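Fold this complex.
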Amino acid sequence: MELNNTDTAGWIKNRIKQDEIDKYLKNGKDFINDDLIEATIKSNTKPDKKMVEDIISKSLAINALSLDETAYLLNVEDAELLSMMQEAALIIKKKVYDNRIVTFAPLYMSNICVNNCQYCGFRYSNQEADRRVLTQQEVRMETEVLAGEIGHKRLIVVYGEHPNTDYEYIADTLKTIYSVKVPTKNGFGQIRRANVNAAPMSIEALRYLHKVGIGTYQAFQETYHHKTYEAVHPKNTIKGNYKWRLYCMHRAMEAGVDDVGLGALFGLYDWKFEVMALIAHAHELETAFGIGPHTISFPRLEPAENTPFTKNSKYMVSNNDFLKLITVIRLAVPYTGMIITARESREMRTKSLKLGITQTDASTKIGIGAYAAHTDDQQGNKQQFYLGDTRSLDEVIREFAELGYITSFCTAGYRCGRTGKCIMDLLRTGAEGKYCKLNAVLTYREWLDDFASEKTKEAGERVIEKEILEVKNTMPKVYNQFMEYYKRIKGGERDIYF
Amino acid sequence: MEKETSISKDIIIVFNQKAQEIKDKYSLNLQLVEIFGSRWSYVAGYIDKNRVNLPPVKLKLTDKIGVLIYNGNQTSLVLEKIQSTLLEIVR
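Structure:
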């Protein structure tokens, strides 16, 4: 890919606003202290039962753990203690979010990128990649499939870093997505919450995006380990600037975007270090703004076309360690949403649900324009990496129903003030979990009536019946209003929520 | 560091005063929000951490500022009064 034309070079040169890094530094340093994290991991070994029980009690009371406590749990090897931690993780998840799983789909807008990250199929030096940016018409076509054929209500929209997909393009695509309304069997389908995964931006750009109503702003640090970061992100690229990336959530918060999503790409460096750094990042946001991250993601490095690094890293995370890191994150930040994606296999996704996962994707396609093309095959030259689970939303929902989970398409919170500090408070006390249940049932009803196969509908009806009974028993004050909404949805009305 | 909002601190202070008056008079709880498209972002006011409320009434004061009114049962006359009281704040 050509980066030498004057416009692109100028855009790259002006991208980073140094003053929007410097203002957050303390004595010229950022908040990730590699040596301290390594030392904390090393000094909290040999965990004993009593200590682990005490830490778990703190998590069960929906309090965030300190870095020392997190390190302590990361070092647990005893099977009995691990099992105790896993049980607690599920209890916390149910307490904060009830038994619902939120689903979404990723929508990739482009694969042009000015960065050259060693592990990424979109890196500019990858000559095998078939480059493309969706037009607004193509964005509309993709959305029509997602909202009208599959039934998604929530997206994570993904952009490469490039002047052609800068914040103005992002804003235009969001407006297009929100404008799509597709007739369905019994109502209509539309995307109600578009979250954005895009490269770090200036406060001004984030403010611009905030005005068009983005959901969560997501940008992953990839690795928090300074030296590793430097090694995999060439210095002469925008992404080569560790601090610009590290402080993008500070800038988002300042711009008013108070739902932010953190993440690390596991497999670049030691997984225990990355967990500690993610928790340190969450603490930093809480200290600076009084609001923790809305979600945390923990993708594992997956093979990508013509990207040998993805197969050779010495830090690949085993399945057992992966399940452990999910458990520890759940315990360390009990009120934060946790996302597992279709990068992972069906087996791993199912196992992780029992450890506190709150969101996942389904019917996933990550090729550019792949939804409207109705391609089932993965196209390595058009996607960032290969997926581990390509099941349809219908299949995934059926499996969840059989496991006793209700799939939620709820997007209510951000449309009625449950954002930022407000939602954090509600999550901590468990009140949000109750809203989750009500809205999960209402949106599940919509989806079953509009999109479900007969087999899935059958499994779904059993879940709904049980959930309605639980609402009646546990929330008598809102039950009548809830049932009125439920009946209206059955009658074809859509998008009614608590 | 603070989250940026186009709603000034002065407006928030006056809102909190008015919200208390309205609560005393009508037993209604108010939340101030900033509007971004379909997103209504929390700025100040009522948060009930311990129970689920019936859906709030959404009142748009300007293109950018809204109020959510909790605890229901308000008549349209009460709503009109609340709206005119709050509109004074944002003018």
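The radius of gyration of chain A is 22 Å.
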